[in-house]
């Protein structure tokens, strides 16, 4: 679990994060959503330590990351896997060399063990047959899967994905979302995704943090979203007539589920 406690960050006299508190749960797909410029990327960079917060605390499983020295921060960073926008593969390396890279940098064990781990990860993302190919020879969806294999090769406890669906068709996007979700549950990873993709929100979002102008406007699950009365969230998520209709249909479906009906109206259901 990652906890953010009242984090603030500004550049010059411009305040970008205005005191954000939120929780990213383990074994869950946690999404950061919000309009362009709302502070999602800055927040993600603060969480992984690429940007230093001005104040507030970030806790990784109860360890205060913001109070750590460089050596302790490095230990946390080695438990973090990252999937970058556009996959960020090394073009001159084969698929298997790309996945091997973090193991060569930070891994322990013999070369044989490392090769076995690469093979396992490629098998897990169904890319064993593409091991000897170069990035230029594979599709965008395959590149994302290489990026995912590389992100999990060191068995991370935390996984950060920046726009994992950018540039992908809807069907491939769904497959990538499913893969990330499966891995999150399988290895009990705390996964944090920065996304604009409404399919991801409605299908994979176990826990969603909605940012509005540098503040957390709303936090909840994708089921909560369907019943939320937060106007800003509703305007953002259900922006089109089509999506508003889809929301009403899902509400009807969910009303048929007694367990869910019982939860409605309970404290915390915003
Ligand atoms: N290094 C920086 N120096 C100054 N301002 C910055 C810096 N990084 C981000 N900002 C500003 O912070 C604000 C929030 O940017 P951020 O990239 O977090 O938005 P975002 O929600 O991720 O948007 P998008 O969805 O378009 O990626 C913007 O106004 C941006 O110009």
Automatic annotation (TrEMBL):
Residues 2-238 form the ABC transporter domain. InterPro entries: AAA+_ATPase (IPR003593), ABC_transporter-like_ATP-bd (IPR003439), ABC_transporter-like_CS (IPR017871), P-loop_NTPase (IPR027417). SMART domains: AAA (SM00382). GO terms for molecular function: ATP binding. Keywords: ATP-binding, Nucleotide-binding, Transport. This is ATP-binding cassette domain-containing protein.
């Amino acid at each position: 679990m990652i906890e953010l406690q009242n984090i603030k960050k500004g550049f010059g006299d411009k305040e970008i994060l205005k005191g954000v508190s939120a929780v990213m749960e383990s074994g869950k797909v946690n999404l950061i959503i919000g309009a362009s410029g709302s502070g999602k990327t800055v927040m993600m960079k603060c969480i992984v330590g690429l940007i230093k917060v001005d104040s507030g605390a970030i806790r990784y499983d109860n360890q205060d990351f913001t109070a750590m020295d460089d050596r302790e921060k490095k230990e946390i960073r080695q438990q973090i896997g990252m999937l970058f926008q556009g996959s960020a593969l090394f073009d001159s390396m084969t698929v298997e060399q790309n996945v091997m890279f973090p193991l060569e940098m930070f891994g322990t064990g013999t070369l044989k063990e490392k090769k076995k781990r690469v093979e396992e990860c490629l098998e897990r993302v169904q890319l064993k047959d593409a091991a000897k190919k170069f990035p230029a020879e594979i599709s965008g969806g395959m590149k994302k899967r290489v990026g995912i294999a590389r992100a999990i090769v060191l068995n991370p406890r935390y996984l950060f994905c920046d726009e994992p669906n950018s540039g992908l068709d809807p069907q491939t996007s769904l497959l990538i979302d499913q893969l990330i979700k499966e891995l999150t549950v399988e290895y009990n990873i705390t996964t944090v995704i920065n996304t604009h993709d409404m399919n991801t929100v409605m299908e994979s979002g176990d826990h969603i943090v909605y940012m509005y102008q540098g503040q957390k406007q709303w936090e909840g699950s994708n089921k909560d979203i369907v019943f939320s009365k937060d106007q800003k969230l509703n305007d953002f998520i259900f922006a089109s007539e089509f999506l508003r209709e889809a929301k009403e249909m899902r509400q009807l479906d969910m009303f048929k589920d007694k367990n869910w009906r019982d939860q409605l109206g309970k404290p915390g259901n915003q």
